[in-house]
Amino acid sequence: MFKRKFYLEKILKYLDNTSLIKVLVGQRRVWKSYLMKQIINFLKEEKKVKEKNILYINLEVDFLKFKKIEDLDFFVKKYLKENKINSRFYLFIDEIQDLTWWEKLINSYRADDNFDVDIFITWSNASLLSSDLSTYLAWRYISFEIFPFSYDEFLWYFKKENTRKNFLEYLNFSWISELYKLPDEETKTDFIKSLKDTIILKDIVKRFKIKEVGLLEDLLLFCSSNISNLLSINSIVRKLKWEWIKSNTITIWNFLRYLEQTFIIHSCERYDLQGKKVLEWEKKYYLNDLWFRNYFFSKYDEWLGKELENIVFLHFKKLWYKIYTWNLWDLEIDFVIEKWRERKYIQVAYMISDEKVLQREFGNLLKIKDNYEKIVLSMDEILLKDYAWIKHFNIWEYLVNLK
């Protein structure tokens, strides 16, 4: 089994902490189930847990067996009784979101002192990963957002060296590992179309009873063509109107929220460094996998700089950084990232090809008068050394070394 070490190490830190429910969230087909099975394998091989003390249930596969929460509860308790389990057991439930009142059952298991269980659950919709989930699970959970393959995982999987050429291959490749074994581009495109349709129709249209399916698809297409652009709800409505697509601010706001809740897109809020506050009315949007954009558009366009920015954003998000963009008059900083008391300013460029580009990327950072780290990432093989204390890195080297 190919081990996703980054996620395993983070999740296993909380193994046997029965007071916390472990929640694995993320877009469909990013190996959440696979990670569950790797945790199960660790329990068997490393911790020598008896197989009967591990119960795995996939509600997407066994949806006919578990039509209501009482069916699941009956099955779990029957399993414990028949296997005479009187010590700790490990409960894994895959795609739990479609079972009504699931949170009440899970919380009852966690809160029962006579029920010695370590619980892991997954789902592909984030609609409850906020105050609702905190209320349902009484703040007794920890969530892990699972992403498609990162660049370093891509290298490990294919046993490739870290080179500029291989990074460009990763850039033009899907990061959803299931595509890696498909025979040709046509089959891969069909897979992405099917995945997109499932997310749109099952996770959004069916769940939220959407009637304007065409507008939802148009909005995803718009986000795919405008990755890294600073947008407001009003600006999106105006631009759609120019394309003869009718919409309104409330509908667009809801549809963007639904797309984010299925993890197919991510937003990056604008930050006011002077006022020290987030400006929620303008955001940038990025794709969880660039092949969604490649499905809609040609892969051979001039958007490489935007795609690079998309990759860097996802890498920092995977590492649990808070990520903002800063845009004030003529001064734009791609990313302001924070974690604990650490802050960094990041500029992403394709190439530092001339003085104008150099002044835009390095010059903007020089205007920030504080002592936090300032970095420019680009595809240049020859780097500028110690340019006014601003660090310059190859993107492919930086992403692999940043942990």
Helix-strand sequence: HEHEHEHEHEHHHHEHHEEHHEEEHEEH
Q: Give the averaged pLDDT, no decimals.
A: 89
How many individual helices? Answer: 15
| Terminal residue distance | 23 Å
Whole-angstrom Rg: 23 Å
Structural class call reads alpha/beta
Number of strands: 13
CATH class of the domain at 5-145 reads Alpha Beta
Task: Fill in the CATH topology of the domain at 5-145.
Answer: Rossmann fold
| CATH A-level architecture of the domain at 5-145 | 3-Layer(aba) Sandwich
- CATH H level of the domain at 5-145: which superfamily? P-loop containing nucleotide triphosphate hydrolases
Keyphrases for this structure?
single chain, 403 residues, Rossmann fold, 5-stranded parallel β-sheet, 15 helices, 13 strands
Layout of secondary structure:
Elements: H1 5-12, E1 21-25, H2 32-45, E2 54-58, H3 69-82, E3 89-94, H4 102-111, E4 117-123, H5 131-136, E5 141-145, H6 151-158, H7 164-171, H8 185-208, H9 213-225, E6 231-232, H10 233-242, H11 249-261, E7 265-272, E8 277-287, H12 291-296, H13 304-318, E9 322-328, E10 331-339, E11 342-348, H14 355-366, E12 373-378, E13 391-394, H15 395-401
Parallel strand pairs: 1-4, 1-5, 2-3, 3-4, 7-9, 11-12, 12-13
Antiparallel strand pairs: 6-8, 7-8, 9-10, 10-11
Q: Could you walk me through the main structural features you see in this protein, from its secondary elements to its overall organization?
A:
Strands 6-8-7-9-10-11-12-13 form an eight-stranded mixed sheet, with helices on both faces. It has a five-stranded parallel sheet with strand order 2-3-4-1-5, with helices on both faces. β2, α3 and β3 form a beta-alpha-beta unit. It has a domain of 141 residues: P-loop containing nucleotide triphosphate hydrolases (Rossmann fold). It is of the alpha/beta class.
